[in-house]
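agent> Task received from the user: take the single chain below, predict its 3D structure, and emit structure tokens. No templates, no multimer pairing.
agent> Plan: (1) validate residues, (2) run structure prediction, (3) serialize to tokens, (4) report one or two observations.
agent> Step 1 OK, no nonstandard residues flagged.
tool_call: predict_structure(input=
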Amino acid sequence: MQPFSIAIHGGAGTLVRGMMTSEKEQAYNAALDRALSIGYSILEKNGTATEAVCAAVTSLEDCPLFNAGKGSVFTAQGTHEMDAALMEGASRNAGAVALVSGIKNPIQLARDVMLHSQHVLLAGEGAMAFAAQRGYETLPPSYFFDAFRHGQWTSIKDSDTVQLDHVKGDHKFGTVGAVACDCNGNLAAATSTGGMTNKKFGRIGDSPLIGSGTYANNQTCAVSCTGSGEFFIRGNVAYDVSCLISYAGKSLTEACNEVVHKHLIALGGDGGLIAVNAQAEITMAFNTEGMYRGYRHSQGYHFIGIYEN
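)
tool_result: status=success, residues=309
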């Protein structure tokens, strides 16, 4: 059996040591460790990378600390519009949804798009019609209500300001994601987000866009991104990492660092990503002060972190 591993993220941004209470830090660390353990236990039982990343992201969607699922931010209309994507590295099959509301776990719906439709990305009313056909329950807005998120929104509503899950002094991108390599050397990547606070016009970020915020190819890597989505779209960031490995012969770490610390910055973007290859090697790169992140490896490596160091 070859080595296997999983990595997760819960967003990047201005995460400086001392800005959060110790209780809040402990809550984030516990939530990350819980999601990591859920995903790793699947790999440990010879489960697939796809099963592992979906389970890990589902756990993060169920936690109100992160901007995905239950913790999603408010749109300009005071609603929630969520996006998610999943991609398998062996077949390069993928499924994604955008602008869905009332769905507890958008990553599960993205998986159903991959498995039970002839399409890759479904959005808005069409995605909701597909969800209804698949028997998904539409939860009331009260399930997604969070006082902190609501406060973020009310401070800027009725303006043209949008925010990437932050208020002054607490700038962070709360998108969640996971990448994994299973015991057969197959890769998968999953990403889920609630988007931008006070967003208008049906804005869609990089998370559900294959190649921008999510990508997997057994020959190169699996990548899940978090950050200023417009720049990740312009840079096709997730696929850019894969291309540097495939065409330039870069290692996983070299490719991730070049994209995050050179290509993305040159565009004016900030954020980070997690990546894994078919040898179960993991890289977590970000150009912000911190990123909620963690990984577990079958050789005994285990890490949970928030800050740069």
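agent> Step 4: summary for the user.
The first helix runs from residue 22 to 44.
agent> Done.
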